[in-house]
Design goal:
The structure is a single chain. The chain is an all-alpha fold and 144 residues long. Helices cover 74% and strands 0% of the residues. It contains 8 helices and no strands. Helix 3 packs parallel to helix 5, helix 5 runs antiparallel to helix 6 and helix 7 packs across helix 8.
Length: 144
């Protein structure tokens, strides 16, 4: 089985919720012999698997690996943000969303910005600097 076929098989397993099996296919792909796109996809799939297995620190690790080579990968940034939220590391979560949206437009993050605006309205976010930053990002990304 080629490494591209392993990625395809891993994606099928992820879609069916078989994350451990997907990881075994992904771990079998050698990082040093491929294009950055194959390795980026491998790392993104690993991040998704670990996130779904609630191994958030491993998910963060693989999201970082994706973002080092492609800082516009919104899915990796979003998984990193959500992983930080799940381990109650709110400072790094907000840093991630702010850094990503400083250089990239929101597509997947539009829902997150909407949720953050709702959290502000309900009083769950109280830090004035964070509130102002969220409102600016929401406005810039046409989220109301």
């Amino acid at each position: 089985m080629t490494d591209k076929e392993k990625l395809t098989k891993a994606k099928e397993l992820i879609d069916k919720g078989f994350f451990e099996k997907a990881i075994s296919f992904l771990d079998d792909i050698n990082d040093s012999y491929h294009s950055s796109k194959i390795i980026e996809t491998k790392y993104l799939f690993l991040a998704i698997c670990y996130y779904n297995l609630e191994l958030y620190n491993k998910s963060i690790l693989y999201c970082k690996k994706v973002l080092i080579n492609n800082n516009s990968n919104e899915l990796a940034s979003l998984k990193k943000y959500l992983s930080h939220i799940n381990v109650k590391d709110f400072n790094n979560a907000f840093f991630e969303i702010f850094e990503f949206l400083k250089y990239n437009p929101a597509v997947l993050y539009k829902d997150t910005l909407g949720e953050l605006l709702a959290d502000i309205k309900s009083g769950h976010i109280n830090d004035k600097d964070v509130i102002n930053a969220i409102k600016i990002l929401a406005e810039e990304n046409k989220v109301v």
